Amino acid sequence: MNATSVTPARTTGARPARRRLRHSLYVAPALALIVLFVYYPIVENIRLSLYKYSAFSPVTRFVGLENYRQAAQDPVFWQALLNNVAYAAVSVVFQVGAALVLAAALEELIGRRLRGLLRTVYFIPAAVSMTVTGLLFQFLYQPDAGLVNGVLRAVGLSSLEHDWLGDPGTAIWGVITMSQWQSFGYTTMLLTVAVQRVPRELYESAHMDGAGRVRTFFTITVPMVREMTGLLVILTVSQAFLVFNEVMVMTGGGPSNSSQVLGTWLYSSAFTGDDMGYASAIGTVMFLITFAAGALQLIHSRRKAAR
Amino acid sequence: MTLTLDTERSAPPSGTPSSRASRGTATRLRPALTRLLASCVFAALAVAVLYPLCWMALSGLKTNGEIFSDPWSLPGEPRWETYADAWDQGVLRYLLNSALVTSASVLAVVLISAWAAYGLTRLDIPCSRPALLLVLGAMMLSPTVALVPLSQLLQALGIYDTYWALIVLYTAFKVPFTTFLIRAYLLGLPTEVEEAAHIDGAGRWQIFWQVVVPMARPILVSAAMLQALFAWNEYAFSLVFITDDHLKTLPVGLADMAGRLNSDWPMLFAGLTIAALPMIVVFLLGQRHFVRGLAEGVGK
Hints:
Oligomer: heterodimer
Structural class of chain A: mainly alpha
Number of domains of chain B: 1
Largest interface: A-B, 105 and 101 residues
CATH class of chain B: Mainly Alpha
Strand content of chain B: under 5%
Structural class of chain B: mainly alpha
Distance between the termini of chain B: 26 Å
Number of helices of chain B: 15
Number of strands of chain B: 0
CATH class of the largest domain in chain A: Mainly Alpha
CATH architecture of the largest domain in chain A: Orthogonal Bundle
Largest sheet of chain A: 2 strands, antiparallel
Helix content of chain A: over 70%
Shape of chain B: globular
Radius of gyration of chain A: 25 Å
Strand content of chain A: under 5%
CATH superfamily of the largest domain in chain A: MetI-like
Order of helices and strands of chain A: HHEEHHHHHHHHHHHH
Number of domains of chain A: 2
Number of helices of chain A: 14
Helix content of chain B: over 70%
CATH architecture of chain B: Orthogonal Bundle
Largest sheet of chain B: none
CATH topology of the largest domain in chain A: MetI-like fold
Shape of chain A: globular
């Protein structure tokens, strides 16, 4: 939109200039939406993080970096950040590491029809809303009727029975586990695409040389799909820092803030605590982390394009 | 076809007699054993994925007592009326809201992104380079971190607590990625047909609708499905920007319902099942398109 106003007249004359202007109408709606609803809010969020104010009073007070100092001294902020880090670490292990093993093993060991079916089955939870799976798992984690404890009892491990979401020590892990259950099929699907692009001849010649499956997985598959795994690591980490829905639905950040993540702590600071400036500061921290991940991704794909 | 390829591929190591003759049957047994073990793992995973979902659907047919006393059993006498009640308890309302917001944002995002991708790849427009960077750069940004300014912005625009808030946000949020997806596809398409149409005197608008859209159909379908999945399941915006219970979409409405039902679990499970089904069906029917969209978006 803003691009149209700076059309240089150049030597092209009036009619081509008007045509170029008309052509830019194709791009204008997209640019207008993006500038207004993506760029502006993020910039505005950084500005607001320098103020103290509440939703119900018109008074705003400039406080500089005070909100960030508040974050640094807020134990819940650190707990939330730590939970996001745990989320990211576990997700990388399962949704990239284990999912790659799974994708490769399916390709190697299972016939075409069946492996397609299995991949479809694994993907199904990813098509379901986090609210649905969150509420379902809330019940599965229940201390008495929940199926998780039921399984433990059935296999003779009743000593491990637990009020999974009710204990501050395990609540966030319950949420993280649910999230792995929901998402591993999605990344397996993506990694399968990468695994299928690896030239078959590489495996054939390695087998000729007597290399086993484990060897070829590490010497051929892993290096050949490095680009996809690199990208997925970045995406997964970035997603892990934006987590909101499943935590909100399953624990609401509790008990006693033990399962807060940055997203839910932002939400409750803004809309329960009415500390808008502080919420914006948390949002800015989330923005910086995910932006760094995004920038890495861009560099990554650039380097790939250059090759 | 690949089935036979698979077996051929695994044949050489156990079948090369020169180096491995001494170990004989052991080497032939090992791949079979690996395969068997792996199959067990794959099957266990499939059960772990499907069982909770089936359990949810079946528990919607039980009584509350049955769920607690005997969570593993099948419903004694299936109570289909629970599903009907859940439907009446608000699920229908939420479902319609979700359907409206989802279909509007799917249409909007595909149309606006296709226009943008067409403009950026085929037309001579001023400042096309900065415009492209602006669009693609937005992919790195996640507006969910800006809940506070967004709610102020929506209030200033007078669309806070309306369908428009969600339609506009879901569209704006996904225009960058969708444009990227369609642009990549258009860059790979031959332009001869478009040029021929141009020589025949067709205008740009006409070419877009009659040549580009039909040729780009596969990626447009993929983009539409990814957007439907996103919009149908989105939670944060819907939670923050919609307060009127009549306008709530499924993810937020169900969470509300869970609180309201006060542990009437069968009713909740019935509601959850109704909410989950449409996207599962869409995915199963259009899996191919889904995977293409995903792969193009991340991999290429």
